Amino acid sequence: MIAIIAMFMDHFATTFYPNYEKYWWLLLIHLIGRVAAPIMWFMVVEGYTHTHSLKKYLERLLIFSIIAHFAYNFCFGISLIPLKDSLLNQTSIIWPLFLSVIGLWVEYQEWKDAKKIGCILILCLLAFPSDWSCFPILCTNHIYKNQGNLKKQVLGMAMSLS
Question: Exposed, middle or buried: residue 132 (CB in 10 Å: 0-12, 13-18, 19+)?
């Protein structure tokens, strides 16, 4: 619920007050909204860890990413045609969350490291035009590798976002 409320506040400030940086209280709302993404990354790792069906989990994320794409683009006035106006922020964070789950699956396959790295790079490229770019893929992987060590999880995300 914290992530949903934070994301709502952020999107509200951005949508209804496009020049939010002029007012301290709108900037504060926007900054509070920044907490949504790391919470979502953490929850994706939890979902991956506890799911009974990876296939169904991925299907739900894919369907939601398609629905969220249209809502995100409508809300922020972005063309529904990918990459028409810009390379960045072309779709919502749900798309890279979907790719993050695939990245977690790839990371724990018994493949050679070169194949894993290649797959992760492809996933990062696919996520690049979305909101938060490839950070969800890299951060969910970091969170998963450091489960049980909140300090390492938080420090790793802070370093990747700074």
Answer: buried
**Rounded to an integer, what distance in angstroms lies between the CA atom of residue 96 and that of residue 126?**
8
- b (16+ CB within 10 A) / e for 17-38: beebeeeeebeebbebbebbbb
Which residue stretches of 17-53 are H helix? 24-33, 36-50
Residue whose pair of structure tokens reads 């739900």 in the numeric block: 60
Q: How far from 79 is each of 72, 97, 158, CA to CA, in Å?
A: 10, 21, 32
What pTM, to 2 d.p., does this model score? 0.88
| 162: pLDDT strictly greater than 60 | no
Q: For 2-131, where are the alpha helices, taking DSSP H only?
A: 2-16, 24-33, 36-50, 54-76, 94-107, 113-127
CA dihedral for 88, 29, 35, 74, sign (positive or negative): negative
Long-range contacts of 66-71 (CB under 8 A, 24+ apart): 68/92, 68/94, 68/95, 69/94, 69/95
pLDDT at 20 over 90: no
Contact 105, 73 (CB under 8 A): no
